[in-house]
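Entry 12.
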Amino acid sequence: MKFMIVSDIHGSYADLKRVMEIYEEEKMDKLVLLGDLLYHGPRNPLPEGYQPQEVMKLLNAYKENIIAVRGNCDAEVDQMVLEFPMRGDYSELYLDGHRFFFTHGHLYDEEHLPMLKAGDVFMYGHIHKPVLKKENDITIFNPSSISLPKAGQKSFGIYENGELKIVSFDKKVLQSIKI
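Predicted 3D structure (tokens):
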């Protein structure tokens, strides 16, 4: 299985549209959304191409392939317009002998990890910075933000065949690790 990991869209249709073009080009099986989908939040500036209704429509077109969690800027009203579950604080996927733990990062983060074991993969967003490392045989991953990165460039993640990558919009691999 090949899946894309996206975090912190914050209503940016222009950025989501580019990422979904790559999703199609790369023939992904699943789209993992790590929260903060439609709203920019009171601490953030409006991202370029801020169109939450268009983001909603584009995401809904992929509803059968989405695994999503709630971010700190996501609200109950967002679930009313999104046609896939997105209100859980975390989700899990078991694949290739690993447990992937997906969360936004405002409840669980590197300082407050959930109960994980060797071989698990902890994926979170929220900080808008890329992270890819192993600690105590646990892979820790943050793809950064596709709309409002706080370090580096806009990026997302790709997982395939035991390899996890942080990728830029021009499809350049910025970091990678075998899990």
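Annotation: The helical segments are 13-25, 52-60, 76-81. The chain is about 15% helix and 30% strand.
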